[in-house]
Amino acid sequence: MLLLDLKIQYDHPLKKFGTVLVSRPSGKEAWLAFQPTFSDAQENEEVTVDFSDIAVFTPSWADEFLTPLHSRFPGKVRLINTDNASIEATLATPAKQQPE
């Protein structure tokens, strides 16, 4: 299982983008920055996205990061620690949370 932790991922912390994840440009930047992390991942691997310590998560950021992640690993993306109101609201937006 590939663990994509929003705090730490193979010494490439997504948290370096902050705990306030907003805007398409920063979501796209995060997605592009994580591409090397996925170079050894198999299409059938599960990817866990951990939202620990994330304060704000907007639909535009999610669209730039989660949408291509779901496309790359269809049905294999697991979202954890999503109990923040901002995260819950964004994930409730249609097409942002794929069924497991």
Topology at a glance:
Elements: E1 2-5, E2 20-21, H1 24-34, E3 47-50, E4 56-57, H2 59-72, E5 77-80, H3 85-91
Parallel strand pairs: 1-3, 2-4, 3-5
Helix pairs in contact: 1-2
Describe this structure in words.
This protein is an alpha/beta fold and 100 residues long. The chain has one domain (2-91). The protein is built from 3 helices and 5 strands. The chain has helices spanning 24-34, 59-72, 85-91; strands at residues 2-5, 20-21, 47-50, 56-57, 77-80. Helix 1 runs parallel beside helix 2. The longest helix has 14 residues, at 59-72. It is globular. Residues 6-13 have low confidence and may be disordered.
First-residue to last-residue Cα separation: 14 Å
Order of helices and strands: EEHEEHEH
Fraction of residues in H or I helices: 25-40%
Low-confidence stretches: 6-13
Which features would summarize this protein structure in a list?
alpha/beta; 3-stranded parallel sheet; 3 helices; 5 strands; 32% helix
In brief, what are we looking at here?
The protein has 100 residues and is an alpha/beta fold. The protein has three helices and five strands; from the N terminus they run E-E-H-E-E-H-E-H. Helix 1 packs parallel to helix 2 (59-72).
